[in-house]
Amino acid sequence: MKPSAHQATAETRAWVERAVIGLNLCPFAKAVHSKNQIRYVVSEADRPEALLAELGNEMNRLAAADPAEIDTTLLIHPQVLNDFLDFNDFLGAADDLLEQLGHEGVLQVASFHPRFQFAGTDADDVTNATNQSPYPTLHLLREASIDRAVAAFPEAEAIYEANMVTLEALGAEGWAALQAQCKVDASKPV
To answer: Is the pLDDT of residue 116 over 90?
Structure first.
């Protein structure tokens, strides 16, 4: 059953708050979240071609927006690319589109998926959870924001290792509990 746009946004926002910020998986997320600079968009696309067109629109919108208003965009697409391998293949088209639109070096696309799996890991490896979102999600980031964040956190490459340690300590049961809590958080009235 397809989630409503409200439900998909609420669950994604709860995941950002509890997992991304709460577990400190991305030390740069808290600032843009607290300043309400994250744009959440739920796509109605049910075909990759329609999603690609919407992604292009969101790339243009973010590139043109004042960073103080919108610093990053999460394009949530629950109806398309639910198979992780299809989603992973789509990322090449997303990068090609970024270049075609002239946003290479300005924006970049990061990827999150409920069944995200790093190369060389088993599907049930808890460390995959660093990139496991409630729904398939394309994250548009500004290169300038990344550069500022890396300058403020000079050992950015250590984030990946710290995330692995955090998730291994949390374990599969802890991750499942966190995901369940996100659903509870999302169901609360705003």
So the answer is: yes
130-147: pLDDT as tens digits:
999 999 999 999 999 988
Q: What is the DSSP string of 52-109?
A: HHHHHHHHHHHHHS-TTT-SEEEEE-TTS--SHHHHHHHHHHHHHHHHHTT-BTTEEE
Give the separation between CA 125 and CA 25, rounded to whole angstroms: 16
Nearest-CA neighbor of 71 among 102, 100, 113, 40?
Answer: 40
- Checking DSSP bridges between strand 137-142 and strand 72-76, what pairing results, if any? antiparallel
| Residue that has been written with the tokens 């509870």 in this structure | 184
CA 179 vs CA 53, 55, 65, 88, 134: distances in Å: 30, 26, 32, 22, 8
pLDDT digits (tens, 9 = 90+) for 65-95: 999 999 999 999 999 999 999 999 999 999 9
Query: What are the phi and psi torsion angles at 39 (to 5°)?
Result: -95, 125
CA distances from 27 to 68, 88, 99, 115 (A): 19, 25, 28, 23
Residue of 168, 85, 86 whose CA lies nearest to 125: 168
Distance separating alpha carbons of residues 72 and 141, to the nearest angstrom: 5
Q: Which of 31, 27, 36 has its CA nearest to residue 160?
A: 27
